[in-house]
């Protein structure tokens, strides 16, 4: 556990850095009040709720498959969110995101993150060219080494692409606790703009192994698997929300789990994945309201644990 003093002082610093995001649409009925946090390396602010695309956007081209995802994206931007994470290895996800962003005219509002997940310089460059084609764009906002694969070569490729203006930020990702030590070591070595890691009410290893390095070096943090791939929901099936939920502005377990991740001061943005519009609206609601107190965080750990 992080100490109470360092946690609370971090929270104060984090809340001091929180502001309201500019909504993506001018219609007030559609606009959100999602909070933003700064990317340490640039000061650019990002909405605290983003979205992933593994599984949820790996679909075919039928109207029945695309219609709900179009609505998922519309609600996402209407709520003031911008950060979308994908990867060349997520089946058709890059194609579907590229197609729908183009169709909705939303590419310029998107903070688009993809990955390099291959070995060798030529393969890395070729994979990125293919991602650009699939995403229907000529650059991305963030390019990450996927699960540290061939990281020495791939991170050099990403730095080169950043120098060419093909990505604005560099990053590294991992997704399981057993990768945290190595991720922290590589973060120290290459000092990326971003890291992406798993963190949830039941998977808290990042607090000890990854977040301290991110805070020390000023690295932005994206959180994947904040629902533990959905497993957290089965752990609270039939359980009522905590008694303090209403006062914290929380009306669902999804919001509680996302607010848990966001209440750690090292975290910049959490990227839950859903293909269901109502769940997207639910997840976006976690982007406003105060950070959870240490007692509220502990209560979630006790309930889910
Ligand atoms: N190595 C890496 O770089 C790495 C690894 C893992 C993940 N990621 C990124 O992080 C993203 C998120 O991680 P994840 O997709 O593995 O797991 P996750 O976000 O923890 O969980 C996704 C699951 O939660 C369900 N869900 C979403 N919102 C919900 C809600 N409001 N209520 C109830 N259920 C809800 C989804 O089901 P429905 O779709 O049916 O709603 C899906 O089954 C990925 O999509 C990917 O972009 C990166």
Structure in words:
The chain is an alpha/beta fold and 305 residues long. It has one domain: NADP-dependent oxidoreductase domain (TIM Barrel). Helices cover 41% and strands 14% of the residues. A 7-stranded parallel beta sheet has the order 4-5-6-7-8-9-10. A 3-stranded antiparallel beta sheet has the order 1-2-3, covered by helices on one side. The longest helix is centred in the first third of the chain and has 16 residues, at 63-78. It is globular. It starts with a helix and ends with a helix. The structure holds NADP nicotinamide-adenine-dinucleotide phosphate. The site of NADP nicotinamide-adenine-dinucleotide phosphate (NAP) has 30 residues, from helix 11.
* Low-confidence parts: 1-32
Mean pLDDT: 91
Q: Label the structural class.
A: alpha/beta
Q: Which strand order spans the largest sheet, edge to edge or round the barrel?
A: 4-5-6-7-8-9-10
Portion in strands: 5-15%
